[in-house]
Amino acid sequence: MASLRRPIFVYDHSGDRISNMYLYVIFRFTGGHAEEVWEYFLDDGRGYYPDQHDKPRFMYPSTYYFYVSSTRLTDPQNTISEAKCERAEVLDKAATGGLVAQTIRLLKIRITPAQDTYTVVLDKNGNASNAAYPVPVFEILGPPDFFLDIQVARSQNILLKGKRGFQDAAWLGTGTGIQKRWIKRSGAAPVKTPARVLEQRAFSSWHIGETSIKLDNSGHASYTMPLEWWQDLARLTLAAFSGSEEDYYFRVLGFENGTSDVIIYSTADGNSGSAPSLKAQNNLTGHQVIDLGYQQAGGRYYKSARVEFTVKEAHTTEMYTMVQWMVGGFPMWTGPGTNAVYPGHQLYNITHDANFPVRTVDSLTTNPRPSFFGGAAGPSVTADGLTAYGTDSPGAGLAAAYSHMFIHLDFETYIHLNFEVPNAVTITRQDGSPPVYGIIVGVIPDPAAVPPGEIHELEDNSWNVRMLLERTPAGVVVTHPNNFAGP
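User: That's the sequence. What structure does it adopt?
Assistant: Structure tokens below.
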């Protein structure tokens, strides 16, 4: 049988014809090895199979793996990896027999972040309003009018695999992939519930319903990651999102319409390790309570503690705030065998007994942001803009009519995203009547709740006060027992 030389014409994405190059066509990859590899030398834009044996024509319509090399490969089956290949589409249907030429367009798609490193910065309202710290933006180039699925994976490149929206057996078969996919908090299903883990590590624009994203007629698209996704990164605890930076791997899939299979991708499935990455950094870098010790001023005895948090980017401390919870009280006695009574105290603009048997938010006003930490106006900030701080000094004096007072207070300080903290506590208990109420309890959605609520704990610290004031002939003596039941 006479051999036939069948011309093909190959064009790159810019429309230029490829010539004087070796073209390798692969039908499939199995176990990392290329199968059914055809080799062509593109001489002046025409391709011939080197041994000139007749080979089947390309099917239409279909896509293949294509690899272009300036030199001839001696072992293409083991040299060419799927990650190195381009996908392509055959534009002209092959006739049966004859020397009808075929035109092949290599389908390349590229995705590039606008910058290589990002810091997760929000303003006090939860928006990315500071132009110096944007939400990640990707620029995409590819075949005009192709639909897109942008995929991003936190720390784990291998999560970038499968078809658009991760809708394939590799993800749906075990259920583990479902748990790792990021979903929204509102809008069309699926949406988060409070019990759902926050650390979904894989993102797909198609999976969250953004199915109309496509390249324009010039082959360009720009994609900004959802603000809510960025906010979820900010919601991670300091322990979960720590260190100087983390890798976020990304790729893009392209397909001709909403029902067609994926034709091209910027990098192959994640297990090839080929996806590029950008760096993301947590803006919160630390939180601490500094014990300043027990002190006395005049007839008042108190303990001071400086509460502070630090950020990576200067003058962005408004992104966070602090809420302090407490339990304890200031019981006092007139002598042995007497019942404890409590001095007056203020919480939430209400005068009440200084008795806190139930965990309550510590704030003089209705705003849960404590006054010693600046309240609604926000805390003091160091000149370099990196540290927000405030000093709390709870204590009291021993009134002349009393022999003993035991100040026992346990505090929990939480760092939160400012926009998640409400502007007022909810008062759940208010005993007694004016002018001095009894026990009073104010709360916000509890960051320590299980499952977690809508206010997320980024970092916490605890501290306490233990002071026993005892009147003696020599004056007031202060000791620090852990417990005291009365004289």
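The chain has four helices and 31 strands.
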